[in-house]
From TrEMBL:
Protein's organism: Glycocaulis albus
Protein name per the record: CAAX prenyl protease 2/Lysostaphin resistance protein A-like domain-containing protein
Keywords for the protein's UniProt record, in alphabetical order: Membrane, Transmembrane, Transmembrane helix
Keyword set includes Transmembrane helix: yes
Transmembrane segments: 32-56, 76-96, 117-142, 162-183, 204-223, 229-249, 256-277, 309-329
Domain of life where this protein originates: Bacteria
Pfam families recorded: Rce1-like
CAAX prenyl protease 2/Lysostaphin resistance protein A-like domain mapped to chain residues: 173-268
Coiled coil: none
């Protein structure tokens, strides 16, 4: 009886085997668990925002009229993001331990070469941003009509003050942003590729889990619809393709360490690079003040007036679908 009790469950394990007494979450229930835990994790951000807005010039009256620019600076946004995503991941891990009764290794926290995979993932994330930037630059050069006029000249002004980037204010803020995005991106990998994908694999198999988790990941970014339906749909398509790449990355490595690092540095580089250019171009402004504007553009939240629909929006899905295909073919070649 004792030996029988130690036999892992019969369902498919994506990373490490589940504990003998573990339980599976119903596949249809996973989006509702994600939504519920997300809203709970948003409470610290809401509180922090209310406090910041109330203490800003104009207070809550100005916020009621839509003016929150004085309050929602990087010094407020970054701690809010850090707390929200750390709490969201913690709530999902609590669900895994309390309800599913399985070990963290089954979520992709595998111990084999974890540090090397994480360090490699840091470089992968930066490389992804540079690759997208290179494709966009090539598109601008060879098909300028496909890129909005506002994006064709991304060069900093001639009087840019690059020395300001060596100052303590920018370096300190950049380090805080890097740490925040490593936690935020890592938390999303723990949630979507760690818990969601392994849970769906146990129910539906790996192929269905990879596809479903990528679609759900894209659906959790529907906030981009504030910039217009057409823009939002194309942006969600790109985010879904990005999720597919990270899903295959985690599947290929049988763990989430590399994907967590790559996702974190991808988000950090996509934000800090334009922030550095903006800071050099406007040295009199604080990095915290500039950050809110950069984040709006980077996340597709700038609004209908500040966003344009065009072929340039196909760069992100094109890059990540191509990389996903390459990764898939490499995995098949290894199996063969």
């Amino acid at each position: 009886m004792t030996e029988q009790a130690l036999v892992p469950p019969p369902w498919q394990a994506l990373y490490a085997p589940w504990a003998p007494a573990s339980r599976r979450t119903f596949g249809w229930a996973t989006p509702f668990i994600l939504i519920a835990t997300y809203f709970v994790s948003a409470i610290p951000m809401v509180i922090l925002t209310i406090v910041a807005v109330a203490g800003a010039p104009g207070g809550l009256e100005a916020a009621a009229e839509g003016d929150t620019s004085a309050a929602l600076s990087g010094d407020v946004i970054l701690p809010g993001i850090l707390m929200q995503f750390a709490l969201w991941a913690a709530l999902i891990i609590l669900w895994v331990k309390a309800f599913e009764r399985r070990e963290l290794a089954s979520m992709g926290f595998t111990s084999t070469s974890w540090l090397g995979r994480y360090l490699r993932g840091l470089f992968v994330g930066v490389g992804l941003v540079l690759l997208m930037g290179g494709v966009m630059a090539a598109l601008t050069t060879f098909a300028p009509g496909a890129v909005p006029e506002s994006m064709r000249d991304m060069a900093p002004p001639e009087n840019a003050d690059w020395a300001v980037l060596a100052g303590g204010a920018f370096i300190g803020f950049a380090l805080l942003a890097l740490f925040t995005f490593l936690i935020q991106g890592g938390a999303e990998e723990v949630i979507f590729r760690g818990w969601l994908m392994s849970t769906l694999t146990a129910r539906w198999g790996a192929v269905a889990a990879i596809i479903a988790s990528s679609v759900i990941f894209g659906a959790f970014h529907l906030h981009v619809m504030v910039s217009g339906v057409a823009y939002g749909l194309m942006a969600v398509f790109g985010i879904t393709a990005t999720g597919l790449f990270f899903a295959l990355y985690a599947y290929a490595e049988r763990g989430v360490w590399g994907a967590a690092a790559a996702h974190g540095t991808f988000n950090a580089a996509a934000t800090l690079m334009p922030l550095a250019i903006g800071q050099a171009g406007e040295p009199d402004r604080t990095p915290s003040d500039l950050f809110a504007e950069v984040l709006e553009r980077a996340t597709g939240m700038a609004g209908v007036e500040a966003t344009e629909v065009g072929p340039h929006l196909l760069v992100q899905p094109g890059v990540f679908l191509t990389l996903s295909l390459i990764l898939f073919l490499r995995m098949r070649a290894r199996k063969g």
